[in-house]
UniProtKB/TrEMBL annotation:
Annotated keywords: Cytoplasm, DNA-binding, Metal-binding, Zinc, Zinc-finger
Biased composition (Low complexity): 319-341
Assigned GO CC terms: cytoplasm; nucleus
GO molecular function, one term: methyl-CpG binding
UniProt main location, coarse: cytoplasm
Biased composition (Pro residues): 237-251, 258-280
Protein name as catalogued: CXXC-type domain-containing protein
Ranges of Polar residues composition bias in the record: 454-479
Domain (CXXC-type): residue spans on this chain: 132-173
Organism, scientific name: Oikopleura dioica (Tunicate)
DNA sequence: GAGAACGTCTCA
DNA sequence: TGAGACGTTCTC
């Protein structure tokens, strides 16, 4: 497959674009030799090879001398780039590329717009900050780096013409080792029994190692040592302050306490998330993970099946889909914080709520949203079940609606008549993914009548039958923050009826 | 544009 | 699994 042929990789041309029901303008492509810049995406010779790398038997990362894969990489991920159900870091939703986190921007404030979204398939920044380099650089500090002269006798020196390698005695120590120990672990655990760790079970699950860190790509950046692989692709400012954290820094953390006004998420997918024009992407399975308190954090160990990262529903035990709904099991309080504020800036009672409004439970395809889990996508139980479950049973917080849209009376949470029996039994029900894309959120928060939801396989534009309402009076907390989307939805986001 | 050398691929 | 070849990136 050619990236050029894949719209997910193709660089969007300048001009108006429509993603879902949103419209925005893309300026001409940024300058070259930036990550994700068109020349890299389109012209890199690795474009033809990374798929092979991701899917083939090779594992250069695990090899002895290979460096990290830093090329922008993605592949035909049938279950998403992190494989079925693996915790996905999610995109740096709405991060202002080129803007420091939390920096106010946007037309409403009369402040400059950030660069438009130019994210790769993973939602990773396209390198608009220009700090990305594809090749690591010698540290210049280690002993070999201090050496100025080639020995002239080593293999690399002798074979310089063909080998194109630096003198073996001058080879930087940092460049000799792989960028991340996870690569080594990855190598270690996955071949002994023929099964790779969850993070390497598919090569395609390997997170993109495209962001420079303290391994030579970006001087001064934190090292990714000890970091779960699914976070290693995150931009530095999204890195958690603790390696045990399983996701990027929640936006509310970045923006400080309080979050954005009206409970709007401080960041939202600038263009509907990674789903993009090709339909919801693998990141649309759910919002970024939530974060246990430091006391519950543990250093990531992919070899440990007990690490929360491998628990489908977090460290508090089986989720609502578990065969045993043990009511006696602990029901810890929301571990994300003790301030009553969720990472999204909403109050706690709004957290851990299904993103589907109770009104929507009569929509079969909305009643069984997916949640990722190690075993694959897993449907949620019906709303009536979810609402009666302990918060901790939910695999992920869903800082979505807990109240009906303005003007709509709440319905009882239990609507057995509208719920298929199979689902009431906790069965698989209808396995329709629900996305957290802005479109889906907006749709679910405003729809008074059933409307087809975008699915993971849908390719056409999403057509919600309602308008995006950013009014603080709307009662919706599901809209994209204009500030964070980078685009004033009143100005550039147009409703597609 | 040339040279250096990093990263990836192929093969034994 | 390591060595070698080579494409590509990066610096000057
Ligand atoms: Zn030498
Ligand atoms: Zn060095």
């Amino acid at each position: 497959m050619s990236c050029l042929a894949d719209p997910r990789f193709a660089s969007p041309p300048p001009g108006p674009h429509r993603l879902g029901h949103m419209e925005f303008q893309l300026p001409p492509p940024p300058a070259s030799h930036m990550l994700g810049s068109p020349d890299i995406i389109a012209n890199s010779s690795h474009d033809s090879s990374f798929l092979q790398t991701l899917s083939g038997p090779h594992d250069e990362l695990a090899g002895g001398h290979g460096g990290p894969q830093m090329m922008s990489g993605a592949g035909p991920f049938p279950h998403g780039p992190f494989g079925p159900g693996m915790p996905h870091p999610g995109p740096p939703f709405g991060h202002r590329l080129g803007f420091p986190p939390g920096m106010p921007c946007g037309p409403r404030l009369g402040l400059p717009l950030p660069p438009p979204p130019f994210l790769d398939f993973y939602g990773m920044p396209g390198g608009l900050d220009g700090n990305y380099r594809k090749k690591r650089k010698a540290c210049g500090k280690c002993v070999p780096c201090q050496r100025k002269d080639n020995c002239g006798t080593c293999l690399n020196c002798v074979n310089r013409a063909k080998g194109k390698q630096i003198c073996i005695h001058r080879k930087c120590d940092a460049l000799k080792k792989k960028a991340s120990k996870f690569d080594k672990d990855d190598d270690k655990d996955d071949r002994s029994n023929g099964h790779k760790s969850p993070f390497s079970e598919r090569d395609g699950m390997r997170p993109p190692q495209m962001m420079p860190f303290g391994d030579g790509l970006m001087p001064g950046m934190p090292d990714r040592e000890g970091m779960p692989p699914h976070m290693m692709g995150l931009p530095p400012h999204m890195m958690p302050p603790h390696p045990g954290m399983l996701g990027p820094i929640p936006p509310a953390w970045e923006n400080g306490p309080g979050g954005p006004p009206h409970g709007l998420p401080p960041h939202g997918p600038p263009h509907g998330g990674p789903g993009g024009p090709g339909g919801p992407g693998p990141l649309d399975h759910g919002p970024p993970s939530f974060y246990p308190p430091p006391s519950e954090m543990m250093p990531f160990d992919e070899n440990s099946p007990h690490h929360p990262a491998f628990m489908p529903n977090g460290p508090h035990g089986p989720g609502p889909l578990s065969s045993s709904h043990d009511s006696s099991s602990p029901q810890p309080q929301n571990p994300s914080n003790n301030s009553g504020l969720t990472p999204m800036g909403n109050h706690e009672d709004q957290q851990n709520q299904p993103m589907i409004h109770p009104h929507m439970t009569h929509l079969p395809h909305l009643s069984a949203p997916f949640f990722p889990g190690p075993g694959g996508d897993m449907p949620l139980p019906p709303i009536s079940m979810v609402s009666s479950l302990p918060h901790s049973s939910l695999p992920l917080p869903l800082p979505m609606m807990s109240h009906p849209p303005m003007g709509m009376a709440p319905l009882p949470t239990s609507q057995p008549d509208s719920i298929p029996q199979s689902m009431q039994n906790g069965g698989p029900g209808l396995l329709k993914p629900i996305t957290t894309s802005s479109t889906a959120i907006t749709t679910s928060s405003h729809l008074p009548v059933p409307t087809p939801m975008p699915t993971a396989t849908s390719t056409g534009p999403v057509k919600p039958n309602t308008s995006l309402n950013n009014s603080p009076e709307s009662g919706s907390r599901c809209s994209i923050s204009p500030r964070d989307s980078g685009y004033d939805s009143n100005e550039v986001v147009k409703t597609e009826l």
